[in-house]
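Problem 12. The chain below contains 487 residues. Write out its predicted structure in token notation.
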Amino acid sequence: MTRRLKKGMGKNSIVSIMHISDLHKSPQDSYESLFRSLIDDCDIYSANGINKPDIVVVSGDLIKGGSTNEIVTQYSEVKDFLEKIVEYFLEGKKEHIVIVPGNHDVNWNISKASMQKISNTKENIDIFRSGIISTFRWSWEDLSLYEINDAKLYMERIQSFAAFYNDFYTGIQTYPLEPKEQYQVFDLPDYGITFFAYNSCFENDNLNLAGSINPVCFSLSSTLADKYHNLGRLLIAVWHHGITGLPNETNYMDKQILERMSDKHIKIGLFGHTHTCNVLNEYKSIFSDDKILLLGAGTVYGDRSSLPYRTGRQYNIIQLAFNDDNIELSFHSREDRSTEIYPIPVWGDGRIGISSQSEWCTTLPWQKTEISKQINFIMTEAEQKQDRAWGIQQLLKLDLNNTSVRSILLEYLLEEKEYKKICEIFHSPVSNDEAIYLMESAEMMADLDMMKKMINVEYIKENADSAVKEKRQMISLFLRSKGYGAN
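Solution.
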């Protein structure tokens, strides 16, 4: 049984992540049945020490695909389902659900329309085999070469997913059609985690099943990875494709990108596509000590045709316990224990890979960025942005017992004239400067109750410093003049 830990950040706190993937719902099945089964399962694993999810990750293949009308219907259904998931598990916070596209979210009708057959000349075949021109494709169906001759239309093969995404995340996130821009950042400072969501369907279409992430897209996200690492976040990447396959398969992602990810401080990768729950060994570069732990989810609602032999529907719960110098990670496989594929899953302990184990635990080395570096980074960013309100938000996530944090935060709050926040945050001052600014903030608010409360704070009331005593006496006299008795 997993030990239950406190939610939120800090020592011995835990963050719980529900990782689902490859929904693949058949027309005869209902998302309502899946939704109710996930609620019931939450009651079961919660009773066994696994916390209700704080975050949900959906790593692609939201639909099965089909005609244009079928695709529209499928996205409408999955939107309703995910909104119920957000409402029940995440208290309506859509910024706490991370969604990426999968190969089934690529519209093959559009990718086919963007191509034309070209002659199988030796020159064209040599170009195709060399990979010099990435717009060439080979069809085993008619043993012919094709070329993508409408690049704009080809980009629109992800349009249906983008329309769903933009509707689902209205006012929070948008999904571009330009491949180099297809990454999203979900920063969750309350949990100390930043998710980087990538499209691993770059150049994926009806004639190219391989997965890949646009290299320019990853490069553009790299600066942000450095930024959030400097803010002390744990970085987690999400994409769709697995990184391994059988000898005759090509529908997996080139693992070279993992070295780039580990270079950019990404510690965990979440993916789907393989339709089996799996924990892959940590990917480690031979040139550094950087590692990335790879965790795969099965298909949460696929039918028999999409399930590997002797594998049921699956999803994962991942728990992260943040300690001072490490993160305790526990990985739990949940599997449909029905003897036959039934519209209502019956979840229980699952299997990781081909093992009989349903749970796996490890410890990730974790050393938060030094607080002085975090402060310097926040100050630099706030100055560049000319946005001290942003700086205040970031400082509030740091250790408020730290003298430097308190000093900079107080300075920013005064500059922003956030007097009420000063009274809320610094109600127990630890320095004479804080005591004086606390009383001045109550004065600026012209709040007599707050003024009386502040001058009776023990640190202020018992303080022998002449400046503090003088300020307290002035406010006390002012309150008496208003007939507002003060000690």
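Discussion. Residues 68-89 form the longest helix (22 residues). Students who got a different answer should revisit the alignment rule from Section 12.3.
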